[in-house]
């Protein structure tokens, strides 16, 4: 069951996270330059990608008991829509959330959920992207847009349908 969870749960978020990382770095070439200067920023760069793009934007939960969210009372059995994309763009938490910065180190983003509802494949996704970026840093000088990115419509997963890029090799 654990392997099945890794395979089914991790595919969408991993593929989406990798595509989003490439999109973010192509749109912010100064951040790619920072990453080339300090490859140790691979993991924080992916955390910022997750915060900035939030592959899973929304999901629902059912309140198990009477509780309160902020000032709002929530009765047991109520459906609660968790909007991760909005939480990860909260200016009170992130200061300048509209800016993509790989040196931000966004501890506390909720892109993969939290607690018992955290994505079981999140560490696998992080390792896969870190491996990809590590290889790209050795081979790619620049990541340039080569057309318009097209985002796939969806209620919960924010993913790319098309991402035309030009990878300029190191000389």
Helix content: 40-55%
Q: CATH superfamily membership, which one?
A: Cytochrome P450
Number of helices: 6
Query: How many independent structural domains?
Result: 1
Shape: elongated
How much is the radius of gyration in Å? Answer: 17 Å
Order of helices and strands: HHHEEEEHHHEEEE
Mean pLDDT: 89
Q: Let me know the number of strands.
A: 8
Detailed description of the structure:
The model has no long low-confidence stretch (mean pLDDT 89). Helix content is 43%, strand content 20%. It has one domain: Cytochrome P450 (Cytochrome p450), CATH 1.10.630.10. Strand 2 (67-69) and strand 3 form a beta hairpin. It contains six helices and eight strands; from the N terminus they run H-H-H-E-E-E-E-H-H-H-E-E-E-E. A two-stranded antiparallel ribbon has the order 1-4. The termini are far apart. With 171 residues, the protein is α+β, with helices and mostly antiparallel strands. Helix 1 (2-27) crosses helix 3, helix 1 (2-27) runs parallel beside helix 6 and helix 3 packs across helix 6.
